[in-house]
Specification:
The protein is α+β, with helices and mostly antiparallel strands. The chain folds into two domains: 286 residues, Aminopeptidase (3-Layer(aba) Sandwich), CATH 3.40.630.10; 115 residues, Alpha-Beta Plaits (2-Layer Sandwich). The strands form three sheets. Strands 1, 2, 3, 4, 5, 6, 14, 15 and 16 form a nine-stranded mixed sheet that branches. Strands 7, 9, 10, 12 and 13 form a five-stranded antiparallel sheet that branches. Strands 8-11 form a two-stranded antiparallel sheet. Strand 3, helix 3 and strand 4 form a beta-alpha-beta unit. The longest helix is centred in the C-terminal third of the chain and has 21 residues. The protein is globular. The model has no long low-confidence stretch (mean pLDDT 95). It comes from Alteraurantiacibacter aquimixticola. This is Zn-dependent hydrolase. Its cofactor is Zn(2+).
Length: 424
């Protein structure tokens, strides 16, 4: 095939598939998509997808974790995997996760039409329960050996519904997820195409985000304890106002990032609860969360230490007691340098503008980063909106992202891939 030009994907088919999947989980009188993991809508979408895989001549199956897997090419040997998820958040958008699965189908369609027979198989994996209804990313974790029997038996959603019961109702043996593990040697590379879910690419008018890695995350539950007082009789200089401690800390966040962080650092106070919580009472206690992110774990430690020092100092200033509990510490996950270079290089060959960037949000790919070669491609989200009914990505941007994915897969799956024509 060397010397032949690269075929082009067909955006109309991608649009048709995305809109077809969007119908699963549309509720009358509600906006957005309701396709949470292991609901009837989610399982119906998975059955539909298996039918599409089979129609493409792919070997299709659902593993014990609910992942839908389609294989094209050699029956044996390692595969180039294209993966993302089908489940949604409540009232979610139509592109989140689905784009990566549908683009994978278009890669296979285009290869089949061009009679390209890959040396390495191509697998499309629609992972299960990525959005964390039960507190994890079950499909990707199961594929990479990151689930336990205990977790499968005890994980529950916010309403107290157990994961094992939801899986059983969907026709799955919960412990079957322990058999979904794929050995690293079975996967030649893992690629995911996803909408950015943030405003950077759209604001900067950049076509492709070449993701260097998934930011690490630490989460704290914090408490500032002072003294509840009458809002009318307690003088301002005699108060132990717990809220004033939060307010002072909020003003210090940018300084902490400037001194300890990078342009990839994020610190967020996402939840605050004041006690007693009455308009005429000075807050005697403030419970709040701090979530910090960066692509470098040492930087994360610096941010965490600075937050602790600053809060301790503020507590002394306002006559407060400061307590905190670290709820989680997730290390950064780095994409494979070779795949980062491949994605960036192919984008340039195609004449697309690109930007090296981190992902502040979690994705399936993060579990594959320490398991095999893994890479992540972003396309712009209009106004940065995601996890909402008005999530949108222009079809022209999707077309470019899918073409880039196609050419990267060709390079990985075919020893002698067609040669891309120079961009005009």
């Amino acid at each position: 095939m060397s010397g032949e030009s690269v075929p082009e994907i067909t955006i109309d088919r991608i649009e048709k598939d995305i809109l077809a999947i969007a119908r699963f989980g549309q509720e009358e009188g509600s906006n957005g998509v309701y396709r949470q993991g292991f609901t009837k809508a989610d399982m119906a979408a998975r059955q539909w997808l298996m039918g599409e895989f089979e129609a493409l001549g792919m070997a299709a199956r659902m593993d014990g974790a609910g992942n839908v897997i389609g294989r094209y090419g050699p029956e044996e040997g390692p595969a180039v995997v294209i993966g993302s998820h089908l489940d949604s958040v409540p009232a979610g958008g139509i592109f989140d996760g689905v784009l990566g699965v549908v683009a994978g189908m278009e890669v296979v369609r285009t290869m089949a039409e061009a009679a390209i027979v890959p040396e390495y198989a191509i697998e499309i994996i629609a992972t299960s329960e990525e959005e964390g209804r039960f507190g994890g990313m079950l499909g990707a974790q199961a594929l990479t050996g990151r689930v336990t029997r205990e977790w499968l038996d005890t994980a529950a959603d916010e309403h107290g519904n157990l994961l094992k019961d939801a899986m059983a109702e969907a026709g799955l043996d919960p412990h079957g997820a322990l058999h979904a593990y794929r050995r690293p040697e079975e996967i030649k590379a893992f690629l995911e195409l996803h909408v950015e879910q943030g405003p950077v690419l759209d604001t900067e008018k950049v076509t492709i985000g070449v993701v260097e890695g998934i930011s690490g995350v630490f989460k704290w539950n914090c408490r500032l304890i002072g003294k509840a007082d009458h809002a009318g009789t307690a003088p301002m200089d005699m108060r132990s106002d717990a809220f004033m401690g939060i307010a002072d800390f909020a003003h210090e966040i940018q300084r902490i990032i400037d001194e300890e962080g990078t342009d990839k650092s994020r610190i967020t106070i996402g939840h605050v609860a004041l006690k007693p919580g009455f308009p005429h009472t000075v807050p005697g206690e403030a419970d709040f969360t701090i979530v910090g992110r960066d692509l470098d774990e040492e930087v994360m430690r610096g941010l965490a230490n600075a937050c602790r020092r600053v809060l301790s100092s503020i507590a002394r200033k306002h006559k407060l007691k400061f307590e905190y509990e670290e709820m989680s510490w997730l290390k950064p996950a780095y994409c494979d340098e070779g795949l980062v270079q491949l994605i960036d290089g192919k984008a340039k060959e195609l004449g697309y503008s690109s930007k090296l960037m981190p992902s502040g949000a979690g994705h399936d790919v993060q579990f594959f980063c320490n398991h095999t070669r893994a890479g992540l491609i972003f396309v712009p989200s209009v106004n940065g909106v995601s996890h909402a009914p008005d999530e949108w990505t222009h079809w022209s941007d999707i077309e470019r992202g899918a073409q880039l994915l196609f050419e990267c897969v060709l390079d990985l799956a075919c020893e002698q891939a067609p040669v891309a024509e120079a961009a005009e």
